[in-house]
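Structure, all two chains, one model.
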Amino acid sequence: MYEPKIIGFLCNWCSYAAADLAGTSRIQYPSNLKAIRVMCSSRVDPEHVLRAFINGMDGVLIAGCHPGDCHYISGNYKTKRKYLLLQKMLEQFGINPDRVRLEWCSSAEGGKFAQVVTEMTEDLRKLGPVKIGEGD
Amino acid sequence: MSENMYIARSSHKDARERGEYGGAVTSILQGALETGKIDGVVTVRAKNGSRYAGVPVLITTPEELIETAGSLHCSTPNISRFVKEYLDGASTMKLAVVGKPCDIRAIIELQKRERIDADNVILIGLNCTGTMSPTTAKRMFIEEFEVDPDSIMREDIDEGMLTVVLRDGTKKSRDLTELEEKGYGRRENCRRCDINIPRMADLACGKWGAEDEEKKSTFIEICSEKGKNLMDETIEKGFIEVKEPHKESLQRRKKKDEAEIERAEKWKTRDFRIFQELNQPERLNYWIGEFNKCIKCYGCRDACPICHCKECILEAKRGFVDKGEIPPDIMFPLTRLSHVADSCVNCGQCQDVCPMELPLSLLCSFLNRELAAIFGYTPGIDIEERPPLTTASEGELQIQDTFLDIPSITENGELNRLLHKC
């Protein structure tokens, strides 16, 4: 079966802890996601996501704190704005914007994190591998 | 409303003769220099007397200023970058900067980023309906106007016509749209530009609304407290003569502005069509094809007024883009795009300097327009308005979107509404 490659940019304070919780709680989720810990989800610039696609990733998950929970007060709101720019850029360059997903995951939401990764893997399986320059 | 508007002309004979429309702008600046209100003026001078080589200059004496009177339509000086790089962002002296709407907007964007001192700068905006790149203009004058480019005394773009006046006094006019169909005429970004009157500056000066005056005059709109002070002082000291504009003048000015905006809309629809017509797979191919021409000269980065980082991530030593690789990794143009797209002022400098003629300005202004629809942000208008990707508004902090309803934000303009509520 085709296994999509996913990069996950996880916020240090919430989502990374959610992934941790999913692990310690022995919640099963696909191993397609490679996690990168960032200090804040707003550290993820559009170019990081584009670079992931250009280097052969099939999907990107950006996960941060819930609104109001940001360790840096407003980081996740900036993430949301950057995500909107990213969606437009992906559209412009012919990459399906659905390949990038933004999620809020608190450190208590190990279950949600596992569910998001599972869903995303399934979605990307349907979309197939990203073909840079051949359309998507 | 009309108390903020004047029809003005210089009280000085020299300025009246040399200036484009009565020398009012020249005299305002001379006055400010003489009274010591400012230490210098940043404006554009024809280098070696050539109309095709306008360069930004710093002028510190009123006498020198007269040489810069009149406008140059066939030069594309990078005024904002000049103030930032060579004058230390006006940190050490008080400056008046004269510029087109895009120059003024670029300066305001740099002020937001604290690269130009906002308190030390007075912005004098000039109405603009477009500029031409020097080489295209020269070729056009030879082939379409059949005149020697060096015999031209002045050019004017108005009501869709390009008019040139030769040294011997003869006038020649051509239809601008026809010229532009042939690839001549204004620069691409200027055709798409819909900001003709620089109301974001302290003073907005231009001829619209003052055409019918018996004596050549300039229409001046005061757009800020700073501008008002400057005007009041200049009038008081007798550097310029002013009168109130008629209602008809205001209306004519408005009408002309609207006509130009409409013309710009047509060009936008036309230029952006290429993106809309390409289907998804073709889009990336098209851009990869374009980006493969890139020789990584860093010209676009060095010319762009929005590119303000002191340590650029695209430098080889930063390890983001490999050194010595031509064409560079596609990340090179994409990173630049993602850094500047939200604040692009459509000055066209990136495309002007690109030796490989990549349609950079087109790409950036297209994306900027898409973003403007979401964020409701027009770059370079209000210094208080932060760039949209680096801020979160009070209103936004109240949004309870635990379930992250993105479509409602993008489609219904929800974010836009919330942003402007507070």
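Chain A touches chain B at residues 45-47, 50-51, 54, 66-68, 74, 77-78, 80-89, 92-96, 102-104, 132-136 (CB under 8 Å).
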